[in-house]
Specification:
The chain is mostly helical. It has one domain. The chain contains three helices and no strands. It is rod-shaped, with a radius of gyration of 16 Å.
């Protein structure tokens, strides 16, 4: 997402490339947050907090783990 933002700010030629890179980065980030929420035992839709970028990632990290560890 950072590379996309810098490419978009570089000028006319980089706007399209920057938009594609930024959107791809955001989709990968949100997808990762969705998988992480599901791995912790929550609904994968809670992972949509990843749309809030870093704040969403912190929220995902603070979710309690619903799976009990059996030893």
């Amino acid at each position: 997402m950072v590379v996309g933002k810098r490419a978009a700010a570089s000028g006319d030629g980089g706007v399209m490339l920057g938009g594609v890179l930024g959107l791809t980065g955001l989709l990968v980030h949100v997808g990762g947050c969705m998988m992480y929420a599901e791995a912790k035992g929550h609904s994968k839709w809670i992972g949509l907090v990843g749309l809030l970028t870093c704040v969403g990632l912190l929220i995902s990290l603070m979710l309690p783990d619903r799976y009990r560890r059996v030893r």
